[in-house]
Design goal:
The chain is α/β, with parallel strands linked by helices. 46% of the residues lie in helices and 14% in strands. The protein contains eleven helices and eight strands. Helix 1 crosses helix 2, helix 2 crosses helix 4 and helix 4 packs across helix 5. It is elongated.
Length: 252
């Protein structure tokens, strides 16, 4: 079987999750605490981080920070803020807006470097030259995804984007309609598409859309966590070209 398209998750797949997002999350949480007039102590910061699945600077694969939207994070964080006796009302939509804005400001501050997982240009360019289409599907905002790909210097290789807060009616992972839309745009069949990601949500997304689920160990999940739903498990995106050669040689 010929692989004609790849839809990548962003964080933990193309982008070094911990190095990029953990420092940003710590800054964002301190700003959130201040907004709600909660003392900005180490204990309060840790409790707020824990509420979205960041435990001692480790991202839990099933926590909202690993794979959900800013609205989901706001829903998870609201009870924690209220338990810390927030002095201002905690409105979920208002908190979503703060999270979206603050993460954008802290993540893409001037001169902040964006570290990819491996030499992404060297990995992806040869596949692109073989007319393999690239897309990205993330529960982060599409705007943030574009900024990340631009910072990684691979944006021109990508022709399909799916993310939170997009104009129109683009669904979110794990909705398989995203894969159908990519397949239609690229004029290929879903079964000719790899979905590459680091969470069970990515694997379920692949199967929901009739694509091939490829888990990578460069993000928040272990082999054991990915195994129940992944068709293939790789160390990182650097191993994708070899997998494509393997699939094409086997005719599968």
């Amino acid at each position: 079987m010929k692989i004609s398209g790849i839809i990548f998750d962003k964080d933990g797949t193309l982008l070094d999750f911990n190095e990029f997002w953990i420092p940003a999350a710590q800054c964002v949480i301190r700003r959130i605490l201040s907004d709600y007039k909660i003392p900005v102590t180490d204990i309060h910061t840790e409790k707020a981080l824990n509420s979205i699945g960041i435990i001692q600077n480790h991202v839990l694969p099933d926590g909202s920070f690993a794979w959900k939207t800013f609205l989901d994070m706001a829903i998870d964080m609201k009870p924690a803020l209220e338990a810390m006796h927030a002095q201002a009302p905690v409105d979920t939509r208002d908190l979503e807006g703060k999270l979206t804005r603050y993460f954008d400001e802290e993540s893409f501050a001037e001169n902040k470097s964006i570290k990819g997982i491996g030499d992404l240009q060297a990995i992806l360019q040869p596949l692109h030259e073989k007319s393999i289409h690239f897309g990205v599907a993330t529960t982060d905002t599409c705007e943030a995804a574009v900024k990340c790909l631009k910072g990684l210097q691979i944006l021109p290789l990508f022709s399909f984007f799916a993310g939170d807060q997009m104009a129109g009616d683009m669904p979110l992972k794990p909705d398989g309609r995203i894969i159908s839309r990519a397949a239609a745009q690229w004029h290929i069949a879903p079964e000719n598409i790899l979905v590459v990601g680091d969470t069970i949500n990515d694997m379920n997304f692949a199967h929901n859309g009739g694509a091939i689920a490829v888990g990578v160990l460069s993000g928040v999940s272990s082999r054991e966590q990915l195994a129940p739903a992944a068709d293939y498990i790789l160390d990182s995106v650097a191993d994708v070209p070899a997998l494509i050669r393997q699939l094409e040689q086997k005719g599968l």
